Every structure is written in structure tokens, then in C-alpha cells.
Amino acid sequence: MIRAAMAGVLVLLAACDQLSGGNAADRAPAARDFPRADRPIAPIVSTRWSSEEARDRVNEAEDIMDRAGIRPGMTVADLGAGEGYYTVRLAERVGPRGRVLAEDILPEVIEALSRRITREKWDNVSVKLGAPEDPRLPENSFDRIFMVHMYHEIAEPYAFLWHLSPALKTDGELIVVDADRPTDQHGTPPRLLACELATMGFRLEELIPKPTAGGYFARFRRIVARPAPSSIVPCAISQQAQG
């Protein structure tokens, strides 16, 4: 009788563990209340999507910044900043009265970017180490948050977005640039992206193809408060086939 009862408890614990995204011990504390993504997570394989010279030849950054409405005096976060292609161009656009926070989750990338910012004397740029489950951004601080060719690499997208949400100002916007292909092929199908952002209270305002930026441009605005972590239902992996 006791053995049977214990077996039943173990089954229930295993079921709860599966629903919460597997073994909680292998997840950061800030992610354990959130479901895992129901899709593959792409590994980080490079700190750059393409060379800066090649990107400038097709006017990538200027085009994306124009579309995102980046103006002098704004405060912008560049998440997954890598070598700083967007960081320095955003810094030039927002000017001395604006601010750019460049963030990455790899310490060696942050160190290299910090050296570049110091060497090129970008006084309106701050550099910060983030975490896969939490960008650790100050609340109500940003007019725009950029995520360029990095969304598919976020290991804990629901936790990450939940912690990111309060950092936007009331009229702030989230800007995503990514390729329209499955996440395990280093892209994010637009319908999957819109679904995952919608779970956090974001509405897709604009989606346009941007082949010169390697995919598409998506602009989101937060329209409702972020949900309780326990109420989040992950978007089905079949969303990828609908991209």
C-alpha cells in the first residue's frame, strides 16, 4: 500500500516537472516559474550576422532605425549587441542627449564591446552583461528596445520577455529583426514571434519584409499588463510551419 502510494506521488511529481519545463535544477531561478518554449532554441554561433561594411552598403541600420522611429534624445536598448553594429549607429542617431544601453550575455563579448565603446569615445553608450532569462533592465526607461538577429537564441523566451516588459516606457516599442525560417535554422517565423509576444501582452503593429536586413522588421507595442507566470501557455511548435 505504501509503495503504491509513493509510486503515485512520484508519477505526479514527474508530471508536474514536465509541465513546468523539465528538471527545474538545470534552469536559472528567475526562469523556473515560466514554461519552456515549445520549439528549438538556436545556439549562439557568432557575434555578428554579417560584416559592418556589407550591412552599410545596403543601408541596413539607417533603414531599420528610420522604420523604428529613432530620433535624437531617445533612450534605446540594444539586446544581443554583439560587436556593436547597431549600438554605435543608434548612439550616433540619438545624439548626446540620448542614451544607448548595449547588452549581451557573453562576458567576452561585453569586454570587447566595452573596449570599442571606449576607443571610439561613445560617451552616450553604457554596456551591460545580461542573462538568458532576464535582461535586467531598469523599469520605465526605454523608448525602443532592439533585438536584431538574436530572438531565436533566447534560451528562456517567456521569462526573458516577462522581465523585459516593464523596461519599456508607456509609449515604447519593441523592435525585432529576424529571418523567416525555423528557430533551429537561426530565424523566427513571424507567426511564432507574434504568438510568443502576444502571451506577454504585446501587439504586432507592423511587419514588413527587409531582405537587406536578412529577413523582416517587426514592431510591437505593449497593450496589456504582463500575465502571471503560472498562466502562460507556450505557443505550439506547429506555429513554425505557419510562418
UniProtKB/TrEMBL annotation:
Residue ranges of domain Methyltransferase in the record: 71-180
Statement: the UniProt record of this protein carries the keyword Methyltransferase: yes
An MF annotation (GO) of this entry: methyltransferase activity
InterPro entries associated with the record: Methyltranfer_dom, SAM-dependent_MTases_sf
Key words, A-Z: Methyltransferase, Transferase
GO biological process, one term: methylation
Domain of life: Bacteria
Family matches, as Gene3D superfamilies: Vaccinia Virus protein VP39
Record PANTHER family: TRANS-ACONITATE 2-METHYLTRANSFERASE, TRANS-ACONITATE 2-METHYLTRANSFERASE-RELATED
UniProt protein name: Methyltransferase domain-containing protein
